[in-house]
Amino acid sequence: QAGAQDAYQNNPNSRTIEVLQSMANYYDRVNDHWRTTGYRKAITTLKKQATRITTEEEAFQLPHIGRRIAQKIEEIVTTNKLQRLEYAQDEPMDGALQVFLRIYGVGNKQAQQWVSQGYRTLEDIKSKAKLNPSQRVGVEHYDDLNTRIPRREVEALGAFVRRAAARIDAQAELIIGGSYRRGSTSSGDIDFIVTKLDTESVAQLRPFLDELVRALEKDGFLTARLASFHAGGDGSKWHGCCVLPKTKGINDRDYRPVWRRIDFLLVPASEMGGALIYFTGNDIFNRSMRLLASKKGMRLNQRGLYKDVIRGPGRVRVTEGELVEGRDERRIFDILGVKWREPHERWC
Ligand code: DCP
Ligand code: MG
Ligand code: MN
């Protein structure tokens, strides 16, 4: 997907990786996070191999590859396919479930409920299911919102937003994070990190965001506001949809408005380092950094790195700890004792 990640095309295990990726995608669609992560880690390991891995035993020796995935690797090499994947793709019930799970704002429980109510197609959902406003947007713009955004369009969307931002407050700074910052050739959405010099709280940034959103809605650029999947709003996140107007060299041939997902994340300057790490991802890289911090008696979250965190039984946190570093991304790596990794190296 991303620049550095394309290297596997020339990898001796590229076919195996491709099939395992389909399995990971399948488990991702059915929200099986555990198996999705297992497959993604195995893929990361395989991408690093210089030789072709052909047997279960060979595969099992490698890091992050367990017995079951090792068996599947041998099956792929021997038969050029994977029985389990073909079952997954054949299950018609599952087909509907997978379609529903890709609607914005729809989780496993909701999707399964619709399947058990006898709904099978998006048309069924559109005409018969009870939808909240976010899910309604998700259904109406299903194809657009499930299409990845080419990097050049992410840049054009970014330029549009920056121009509007500069008219409101020349001091405001907007950084595109997420997969774009990791160098991906395409992104699922556009993630804006919004900050300003000398800010120490989200509240100091909120008026700017409110004004920016109003201006972009007036321009017809922002087309919908979406409820956050994960509740617990401190007002630091804004989710919605946007449409790039006709722009030369980007979408001017046979123009039609294409709906894209856009996120704004408000980050005070004092927390920029923690936020940059978190919102650059990817999610698995973040998980490993957090785990590392916790092993060193520290805690890493999207606001910074904390020390003297006291944990009780089951690693449950007893105290918040003291902030060690929030502002500087590099220093957080340093204090954790890990070598600095450029954003494009952070996909595992
Ligand atoms: N993130 C995370 N854990 C999650 C969700 C997000 O650590 N469960 C972090 C890492 C992500 C970043 O937030 O890189 C942005 O989230 P996105 O869902 O937008 O993911 P990406 O930008 O990485 O990928 P995509 O191209 O699909 O948007
Ligand atoms: Mg993203
Ligand atoms: Mn996002």
How would you describe this protein?
The protein is an alpha+beta fold. The chain is built from 16 helices and 10 strands. A hairpin with a 2-residue loop joins β8 and β9. Bound molecules: 2'-deoxycytidine-5'-triphosphate (DCP), magnesium ion and manganese (II) ion. The site of magnesium ion has 6 residues, from α12. Manganese (II) ion binds next to loops.
Strand order of the largest sheet: 2-4-7-6-5
Cofactors and ligands present?
A: 2'-deoxycytidine-5'-triphosphate, magnesium ion, manganese (II) ion
Helix/strand/pairing category: alpha+beta
Would you tell me the overall average pLDDT? 92
User: How is the biggest beta sheet arranged?
Assistant: 5 strands, mixed
**Tell me, what's the shape?**
globular
Regions with little confidence, pLDDT below 50 for 5+ residues: 1-7
Q: Helical segment tally? A: 16
Fraction in helix: 40-55%
Which percent range describes the beta-strand content?
5-15%
N- to C-terminal separation? 13 Å
**Helix/strand order, N-terminal first:** HHHHHHHHHHEHEHEEHEEEHHEEEH
Short key terms for the protein model shown above:
348 residues; alpha+beta; 3-stranded antiparallel beta sheet; 10 strands; globular; disordered N terminus; binds 2'-deoxycytidine-5'-triphosphate; binds magnesium ion; binds manganese (II) ion
Helix and strand topology:
Blueprint: H1 14-29, H2 33-47, H3 56-61, H4 67-79, H5 83-90, H6 92-101, H7 108-116, H8 122-128, H9 133-140, H10 142-145, E1 149-150, H11 151-168, E2 172-176, H12 178-181, E3 186-187, E4 190-196, H13 206-218, E5 222-226, E6 237-243, E7 259-266, H14 272-280, H15 283-295, E8 299-301, E9 304-307, E10 322-325, H16 329-336
Parallel strand pairs: 4-7
Antiparallel strand pairs: 1-3, 2-4, 5-6, 6-7, 8-9, 9-10
Bound molecules: 2'-deoxycytidine-5'-triphosphate (DCP), magnesium ion and manganese (II) ion (MN).
